[in-house]
Amino acid sequence: MAFKKTFVLSDESLNTYGFRVITDGINLDAAKKNCPAYFNHKTWEIPLGHWENLRKEGTKLLGDLVIEGANELEKDYIRKIENGDIKAASIGFDPMVWSSDDINLVRGQTYPTVMSCELFEASLAPLPGNKNALALKTTDGFLTLSNENRDNLIPTLKKDNMKEVAILLGMNAESTAQSICDALRPILLNAKKVEGLEKTVQDLTKGMADGLPEKQKNFFLELSKTNMEGALQFLAMSKEETPAEEAPETTTTTTPVVKLTKEVTIASLIKKGAAPVEVAADGKDSFDYLQKHNSVELTRIRQDEPEKYTQLVADYAKGVRYEKK
Questions:
Q1: Which residues contact 197 (CB under 8 A, 6 or more apart)?
Q2: 106 has which bridge partners?
Q3: Which of 2, 98, 139, 195 could form a disulfide with 112 if both were Cys (CB 3.0 to 4.6 A apart)?
Q4: Residue range 122-172, pLDDT digits in tens
Q5: CA 180 to CA 172: how far, in whole Å?
Q6: Which helix (H) or strand (E) holds 315?
Q7: What's the Cα-to-Cα distance from 230 to each of 66, 120, 133, 302, rounded to whole Å?
Q8: Which band of pLDDT confidence, cut at 50, 70 and 90, is reported for residue 269?
């Protein structure tokens, strides 16, 4: 009489290779007609038996192993099963669909989940999940998984990072890639604009520090990175303290009184040799006036109107000062 025993062939737990097989997606049509039983997926050897009554119970795939016991080798396997030396089995399957969706992944999973596959054999496995205890069928033929070749047989797990980006932007996690890109575009443009303004201010401050002693120049440049008002005040005091013989010769000592215009472009700020632009008639919107009499407004301009603030800095560097009429 043939030996028969029921085994759990597969479940949906994480295997030692870092992926899972969804039981409901295992196609049993071909296996129910012919499902040989091997030892450790050695399909090149004569089967030791076959599987009957393949069925799914919840997340488990079960099957009844049938061994005829007609020779000593088959009898040896029966004895090993009966005394508990062989307690497990594992499936050989042809993967059809892999999934990297978060909903199909569990903690510790490093490869995608097999959502659909076709069972073509099942084997006795003393150590299920070891390097020879799980097998895949590919277009190149039957291949046994091992630690050395699994990266070539199993697709890389690709997580959808766009969901995280959407959440950071305050958008719905299910937002489309196009809508996320549309939301990012103005942010990136503004970042480039701010970067350009910062570069302009840095270039201007470097030019303004020319002529100062090295220590004062370094102090001014560092201070200008965090406190432009204080840096310009330091610059004014430093130049006032410069000995007369070290000051460059000029044809006049009169500080130019100019007028500022409301509109200005970055190009006009960095245009070499450009003359100071005109200021409002009363001069009260100049950097000189604001830093002395209305520092709150100057701070607001720096935060809310960076282009205007850059212009005020540039005009101050060119000698624009407020003179009370």
A1: 266, 306, 307, 310
A2: none
A3: 98
A4: 999 877 653 443 444 555 555 455 444 555 556 666 655 667 777 777 778
A5: 10
A6: helix 306-317
A7: 90, 79, 73, 13
A8: very low
Secondary structure (3-state) at 233: helix
pTM for the model: 0.46
The Cα-based distances of 73 to 47, 152, 193, 216 in angstroms read 11, 35, 79, 93
* Of 31, 36, 24, residue with least CA distance to 54: 31
- Residue 204 pLDDT greater than 60, yes or no: yes
pLDDT of 76 > 90? The answer is yes
Q: Tell me the average pLDDT of the chain.
A: 74
d(CA 264, CA 261): 7
286 or 55, higher pLDDT: 55
Q: Which of the two residues, 201 and 320, has the higher pLDDT score?
A: 320
Take residue 57 and report the two structure tokens written for it: 């119970």
76 vs 5, 47, 48, 106, 281, CA distance in Å?
15, 14, 10, 39, 108
**Distance, CA of 182 to CA of 165 (rounded, Å):** 12
CA angle 290, 293, 299 (to 5 degrees): 45
Q: What is the pLDDT of residues 32-45, one digit of tens each?
A: 999 999 998 888 99
**8 Å CB contact between 96 and 117:** yes
CA 193/CA 59 separation, integer angstroms: 56
* Cα 249 to Cα 325: distance, rounded to the nearest angstrom: 28
Q: Which stretches of 125-268 are assigned E, i.e. beta strand? A: 135-138, 141-144
Q: Which residue has the tokens 């510790």?
A: 108
Count how many residues are written for the chain: 325
